Amino acid sequence: MDLELERFKTDIDLIAFAASRGYVSDRRESSQNCEVMRTTNGDKIVIVKHLDNKGAEHWVYYCVRDARDNGTVIDFLQWRGGGTLGHIRKTLRDWLGSPRPAPAGVTIRKLLPVSHDRAGVLMAWERARPCLNIPYLTARGLGPDVLILPQFAHCLRTDERGNALFPHYDWE
Hints:
Layout: H1 3-11, H2 14-20, E1 24-25, E2 34-38, E3 44-51, E4 57-63, E5 70-71, H3 73-79, H4 85-97, E6 113-114, H5 116-127, E7 129-130, H6 135-138, H7 144-147, E8 157-158, E9 164-165
Parallel strand pairs: 3-6
Antiparallel strand pairs: 1-2, 2-3, 3-4, 4-5, 7-8, 8-9
Organism: Solidesulfovibrio aerotolerans
Pfam families: DUF3991
InterPro entries: DUF3991
């Protein structure tokens, strides 16, 4: 295992790093386990802290628009034109080499780590499209007239197969 690469994955705050690259937090969609960030060009990522099988916390992200675009800070740079692994190492060494203040207007929060399943569920939810009308649900009394009520706002989405998705809220 390359200890330097491991250090990049655990020590670089991916929220602060993404903010330095023009991403802005979406406070409405973020939670204590994930940070949802966007750019002005429409790119949307979800950042979480993942516990590996050795108990180390790795920063990982998922791009909502492209299922292939996900991983650690190294992947984040590779997908965004960071160059060769050598160039990426140099960029990340510089990042680790000095303290970084949060970019103006950005509040960096501490995230709680998530499990494999929670991260996958968060990714699937963010990729799903908001929806107000599914004939199957309307036939069972959950039509648009119910789903527009304030207590149900933003509670129904559909995935790429047309499945209805409802969020589950728990203490985490």
